[in-house]
Amino acid sequence: MKAITIQKFGPPDGMAVTDLPDPAPAAGQVLIATQAIGVGGVDAVIRSGAVAAYGFTEGHIPGSEVAGTVTAVGEGVDASWVGRRVWAFTGLGGGYAEQAVASVADVVPLAPDLSSADAVTLGASGVVAHFSLAHAHFARGESVLVRGAGGSLGVMTVQLAALGGAGAVAVTTSSAERGELLRTLGATHVLDRSGEGVEGDADGGDGGDGGDAPTGYDVIIDVIAGADMPSFLDRLNPNGRMVAVGVVGGPPPEDFGARLIAAFRKSLSFATFSADTVPRSAQHTVRAEQFAAASRGELRAVVHEVLPLDEAVLAHRKMAASEVFGRIVLTP
Q1: In the prediction, which pLDDT does 210 show?
Q2: N or C end of the chain: smaller count of CB under 10 Å?
Q3: Three-state SS string across the chain, please?
Q4: Nearest to residue 151, comparing CAs of 297, 331, 323?
């Protein structure tokens, strides 16, 4: 089969198209002929070599979620899965390929009216967005800031916060154009990456009908982290909660904890969140609900672009250049 492998950790050019033997499902697994492959931020982090301590080696196949048709099952798996179209989590690799294996416990059936591209755009991001807001104890009427809202995770968080009755949903993003797209998804205020008004935005960072942007937020969902992360602690209201769900901008500076302690009298809370801490059954329940909501038109899967599998390097270049709004999807 054709697959994308990491030949050298670092820039996107370190990935290459490789011919590999067809995989076979082990006990408890299914084999999937992929129709759509999600390109996520975690793929870029692994490809960069930033998580080398976790044991990834050259020859690793990136990709954690796929959609396609089950073609074979391993020992102990009901044969009725064969021929069914599914979404699947493949772990921290194995997805960028014409065929992928996944544990049957990480597979969700897809309805005919949900495309495979939409499924891999919603599948992981929607669950993380849902449970990160729950982790922040978000409540109706509270103000929310989504830092790094242009990617698939940020896009889903904006939608879910708006649907959950947020009093305001502010976003940081890179342009007024993206800000307008985020407003169509529920954002009420658009800020630049530093948290100020977007240059060229007609209302200077206001939300139009939403009025002036809040001076503080009850909840901040942070996809970015990085050097500027401490400054966003200052934007939390008393008893405000910040939850880090990604580190695409790298780790925060060493004095991040000191900044938190300096605001001791505001009773601020900071937490990290990974979906690894949520039971599979709970994830699948939420995922199935979101797939159904997308089928009804209540949630939008924002697909930036669909590219052939052999253009995975281009997909990663686009992500590195911050050109992607939503998610890039690869097809074999």
Answers
A1: 52
A2: N
A3: CEEEEECCCCCHHHEEEEECCCCCCCCCEEEEEEEEEEECHHHHHHHHCCCHHHCCCCCECCCCEEEEEEEEECCCCCHHHCCCEEEEECCCCCCCECEEEEEHHHEEECCCCCCHHHHHHHHHHHHHHHHHHHHCCCCCCCEEEEECCCEHHHHHHHHHHHHCCCCEEEEECCCHHHHHHHHHCCCCEEECCCCCECCCCCCCCCCHHHCCCCCCEEEEEECCCCCCHHHHHCCEEEEEEEEECCCCCCCCCCCHHHHHHHCHHHCCEEEECCHHHCCHHHHHHHHHHHHHHHHCCCCCCCEEEEEEHHHHHHHHHHHHCCCCCEEEEEEC
A4: 323
Q: How far apart are CA 218 and CA 215, in angstroms?
A: 11
pLDDT tens for each residue of 290-321: 999 999 999 999 999 999 999 999 999 999 99
Measured distance CA(313)–CA(134) in Å, rounded? 35
- Residue 120 and residue 38: Cα distance in Å, rounded? 5
Which residues in 125-138 are b (16+ Cβ under 10 Å) and which e?
A: bbbbbbbbbebbeb
Weakest mean pLDDT among 6-10, 51-55, 214-218, 308-312? 51-55
Judged against a pLDDT cut of 60, whether residue 201 lies above it is answered with no
Please, which residues bridge with residue 143 across strands? 168
- pTM beyond 0.85, yes or no: yes
Per-residue CA distances from 171 to 75, 213, 312, 326 (Å): 47, 10, 28, 14
Tokens 């049957």, residue located: 104
pLDDT of residue 197: 64
CA distance 195 to 217: 12
The length of the chain, given as a count of residues? 332
The pLDDT tens digits of the residues spanning 24-36 come to 999 999 999 999 9
